[in-house]
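Blackboard transcription, Thursday session:
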Amino acid sequence: RIVGVPREVKNREYRVAITPAGVRELTSRGHEVVVEHGAGTGSALLDDDFAAAGARIAPDADAVWDAAALVLKVKEPVAEEYHRMRPDQVLFTYLHLAASKECTTALIDAGITAIAYETVRLPDGSLPLLAPMSEVAGRMAPQVGAHHLQRTEGGRGVLLGGVSGVAAGKVAVIGAGVSGMNAATIALGLQAEVVVLDTNINRLRQIDFSYRGHLQTITSNAYEIERACLWADLVIGAVLVPGAKAPTLVSNELVSRMRPGSVLVDIATDQGGCFADSRPTTHDDPVFRVHDSLFYCVANMPGAVPNTSTQALTNVTLPYVIALADKGPARAVADDPALAEGVNVVGGRVVQPEVAAAHGLEH
Ligand code: NAD
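(Written on the board underneath:)
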């Protein structure tokens, strides 16, 4: 089978859907991999690296789409790509179709089979192709928080690790899931003092057991969130209620009483944010002031570290890519209920219930 990997064209998207490791894995199984010239450059992966792993480098996107039975991307296709899609092709990528009528219509009209990373779901309900991006965002949160805590950036002027004879900075992480615990772990690595809050007591029990007193676990409720926010130099919001908008946990009034120069990083900004004043920001202009605090609300944090993000994403997509290439899409989907949940559009019909509902379509 021929697997095609075009260069991402969406504005400021630097990731790519395969690494040289993935190319080697596929070619060793007898598949051909066609990578567009320059597709990996944004992630610091060079054409030569892909070629050395066995890929054919194509001069442009048309050549990739023309050749490929299976097209791998990172983001949903944009208008200039629509005319390249064909009914005999499978597209495997992040699609987020509930948010885009235009893209949904383009996939229906093209007749292509579209499988979305974000709806691949394991039997326990977890989303394996979203988790690595939560890891990346979580690990970035203390890093960006530490940066903006510097006085020169408008922050409180606190060094998270403290120094000998001076107390460490204080970090409160609200939500102890994938992103929250990655944030907490990195904050601990910086030698900050860390508390994590969650509503799930079983989760807190596991964390308390694993971290052996290096951080404090606190049950999340309005009273404890207020205490933690008034105590902290850095607050990291990392909550998720599956399928729902993030709950608003930190009010404007509470921010008005926080330490001057404190920083709040809202990882949940893509789900509406968990602080009342959160609004999505970009890497170009990441922070804004609320009372005497700084809010960081970048909606695509992993975009800043594409080399790491590309590897993290492709590590988890590759097993599905191998199944699709080895078995063909029909068998691969029939054999794996998790992958079947990823199928959004087939033969001009939306088959994913939430996407169909979002656009008032039958599925
Ligand atoms: P997760 O499901 O692993 O963890 C969420 C945690 O929040 C769970 O432990 C849950 O019990 C907890 N929670 C729910 N309500 C709570 C409350 N009221 N108080 C305290 N805890 C509460 O989710 P995740 O993968 O860590 O994702 C978190 C958010 O980060 C999501 O909205 C996700 O879309 C977002 N995200 C953002 C970026 C970005 O670039 N900004 C990148 C990746 C993920």
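Lecturer's comment: The CA atoms of residues 323 and 332 lie 6 Å apart.
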